[in-house]
């Protein structure tokens, strides 16, 4: 039972990342009809927003500390972050400690602007081009963004630790009646799952209950008719591209303590996220979320030792095997709509 609970938690953790990235992908495809292979790079840039804020907050200058001396008895030179002088050492340490959650404030405008610039500057020219052209140009853009990050931040992973208060473990065993420390799980991963759930619910609420979202959904169903009503649907779709980029960026920010950001992390998630989108159904937002969590849980259970002992390596291919089986029985995916990507 404890193994089942732990693997379910692992699955929800992985599924959270898959669902968030796939949700942004589906938003872009559902509104603009663009297959965006640069979406994984947006996830990676979000993670580096956390790294960037951490570096900014720890910028320091050298001062002479008269209270400390070296082995010769001379006052020592120490590096003091500027934030200590602005807010005091105690508050400054707290701000640095919480730099990852605070990076959300930085990531939202950065990712929205980046998404709008991408859509207006490049992707809008490929709306009516074949999907193969869209894949090539967005994949090339992903490589360019990846190399830019590599140039400025280097090739090695850069740690972005979670706040000390959220860096421990949560004892599920004690909560469920098991012995203490029987079932423990990293607290930050639970925070990531809850954060993902909030973002997913917020996106669905925005599309379902706001006038802007209702117009966007109408445009997704019949773009021409909405345009004939005098609504600038292209402008709204551009904004949705920015929102989708922000969703991917926020997923990356909060994932930074789980997997230290590196320049190729976007590519690591890209293929899986597209599999999630296809399994869920192209253009289906509920399908993307459902498939993300389902495939995350399946991958987690396939990683159990009792499974890999019988089927070595199954954890690396189970997502693709399930995708093949689902597409053989349901070619449009779990919740796919008729006519999407069907010529």
UniProtKB/TrEMBL annotation:
<feature type="transmembrane region" description="Helical">
    <location>
        <begin position="190"/>
        <end position="216"/>
    </location>
</feature>
<dbReference type="GO" id="GO:0005886">
    <property type="term" value="C:plasma membrane"/>
</dbReference>
<dbReference type="GO" id="GO:0022857">
    <property type="term" value="F:transmembrane transporter activity"/>
</dbReference>
<dbReference type="InterPro" id="IPR001851">
    <property type="entry name" value="ABC_transp_permease"/>
</dbReference>
<dbReference type="InterPro" id="IPR036640">
    <property type="entry name" value="ABC1_TM_sf"/>
</dbReference>
<comment type="similarity">
    <text>Belongs to the binding-protein-dependent transport system permease family. LivHM subfamily.</text>
</comment>
<dbReference type="GO" id="GO:0006865">
    <property type="term" value="P:amino acid transport"/>
</dbReference>
<dbReference type="InterPro" id="IPR052157">
    <property type="entry name" value="BCAA_transport_permease"/>
</dbReference>
<feature type="transmembrane region" description="Helical">
    <location>
        <begin position="42"/>
        <end position="64"/>
    </location>
</feature>
<dbReference type="Pfam" id="PF02653">
    <property type="entry name" value="BPD_transp_2"/>
</dbReference>
<keyword id="KW-1133">Transmembrane helix</keyword>
<feature type="transmembrane region" description="Helical">
    <location>
        <begin position="237"/>
        <end position="258"/>
    </location>
</feature>
<protein>
    <submittedName>
        <fullName>Amino acid/amide ABC transporter membrane protein 1, HAAT family</fullName>
    </submittedName>
</protein>
<feature type="transmembrane region" description="Helical">
    <location>
        <begin position="98"/>
        <end position="123"/>
    </location>
</feature>
<feature type="transmembrane region" description="Helical">
    <location>
        <begin position="270"/>
        <end position="298"/>
    </location>
</feature>
<dbReference type="GO" id="GO:0005524">
    <property type="term" value="F:ATP binding"/>
</dbReference>
<keyword id="KW-0812">Transmembrane</keyword>
<feature type="transmembrane region" description="Helical">
    <location>
        <begin position="16"/>
        <end position="35"/>
    </location>
</feature>
<feature type="transmembrane region" description="Helical">
    <location>
        <begin position="310"/>
        <end position="328"/>
    </location>
</feature>
<keyword id="KW-1003">Cell membrane</keyword>
<keyword id="KW-0029">Amino-acid transport</keyword>
<keyword id="KW-0472">Membrane</keyword>
<keyword id="KW-0813">Transport</keyword>
